[in-house]
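so my prof wants the structure for this chain in the tokens format not the other one, which i didnt know existed until like an hour ago. anyway here's the sequence
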Amino acid sequence: MTAAYDTIGIDYARLRQSDPRIAARIAAALGSARTVLNVGAGTGSYEPADRAVTALEPSAEMIAQRPVGAAPCVRGSAEALPFADGAFDAAMAVLTVHHWSHQTAGLAELRRVSRGPVVILTYDPAFRGFWLADDYLPALTTLDEAKMPPLSLYSDVLGPVDISPVPIPHDCIDGFLCAYWRRPAAYLDPRLRAAMSSFHMIGDVTEPITRLERDLASGAWATRHGALLALGELDLGYRLVVA
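here's what i got, hopefully its the right format
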């Protein structure tokens, strides 16, 4: 995915900002850790400003978009972290494990370099119930099943873990795949889709996106899913894993 993010990473820093409610969950899970390694760091989302963070990211495009004053960033991969055993108080990885070529090796590396918690935001590939996948893009479910590690892998590699749902706010400012669950017209915007790796991996989505546009115009989407518009947040399968 390194080459892919060199392409889809354009404008990523603006479209994929930290949502403060999700950031608060991650910060709490890091506990009292003062030194934190952020693996698959991208442009720096969710890096706590009140701790000494070291970032690791494989994509040059993403590194180039890290803002002035961001944590120092090392170019590298999760599967071979260039740090000593127990080098950090904690390690974190946000929506990145599914991009790793060897997920077991990457998780073992996180455990190796952290002398405290390992905090991972991920997605449960067994989750069902997102209207975009169910009604328009079943390829999203197929892709998740192929790329997302089962939740059991985390305890297999990291030892005892706490796994909790991370409901997505209706006005989430981090533009990941399910962020616009209550703003369906956002998926019609190719600029927003370009910041979602799932669309890059699926390829041509002209037909399902055209159907979505038609259903929004006719009211068919509202007939099926209008009840969502009254919700403030929704569980869409995102999970916080803390070892």
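also thought this was worth mentioning. The chain is about 35% helix and 15% strand.
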